[in-house]
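From the methods appendix. Each design record in this collection lists the tokenized structure first, followed by the designed amino acid sequence. Records were kept in a plain field format so they could be parsed without special tools. The example shown here is representative of the layout used throughout.

RECORD:
FOLD TOKENS (77 positions):
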């Protein structure tokens, strides 16, 4: 999931995307969503995580101060 605001020139938005992968249960093709409000993107990412068995949701921030703690805990690696 990518969170961005076009370097401060637009409201904070997000897209959800993933690379193709295959496992016994499913072949998942690559895709990326339209720009949406961050809360909606997080909900969609959680749905996809459960549906396809992704191990984690990776958040990419355009810049560090975009994360809102109201969205949940951001684990940095």
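DESIGN:
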């Amino acid at each position: 999931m990518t969170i961005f605001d076009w370097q401060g020139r637009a409201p904070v938005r997000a897209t959800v995307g993933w690379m193709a992968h295959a496992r016994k249960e499913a072949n998942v093709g690559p895709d990326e969503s339209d720009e949406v409000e961050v809360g909606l993107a997080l909900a969609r990412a959680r749905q996809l995580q459960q549906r396809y068995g992704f191990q984690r949701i990776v958040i990419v921030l355009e810049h560090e101060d975009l994360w809102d703690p109201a969205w949940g805990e951001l684990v940095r690696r």
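APPENDIX NOTE: The chain has a mean pLDDT of 87.
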